[in-house]
């Protein structure tokens, strides 16, 4: 080494923050739980595809209260899967869901089971959850609704006459 190389002061590298870990993303809390924003998106999505008992109070305005009364049977889950992934849910996956996640007495996935599904998926493959969010019309970075969800028909508007 020459004397000029030795005399040059060392320049400290700028500190670069490590990227946020998945546990502190917009999808999960630092404790690994679903974030409030993701939970709200899941309520809306679940309510869109779920069926509700005739005994459920009509016109429940609270999305969470409504979600807690609904369920996804095989037909509803297939509609959800087609809108999200483009195809029906395979039989073996349906069997796994209804064996390991929360279901009602009719072996239909409850909102609790649906959120558990997304909790597991997000913990293990956050990219898959982000892809689902995009299919539902949400920005996966902010969870804001930014576009009409893919493959979703506009709901019929109530008649004003």
Automatic annotation (TrEMBL):
It comes from the Eukaryota. InterPro entries: EF-hand-dom_pair (IPR011992). SUPFAM superfamilies: EF-hand. Residues 1-29 are annotated as: Disordered. This is EF-hand domain-containing protein. It comes from Rhodotorula taiwanensis. The lineage of its organism: Eukaryota, Fungi, Dikarya, Basidiomycota, Pucciniomycotina.
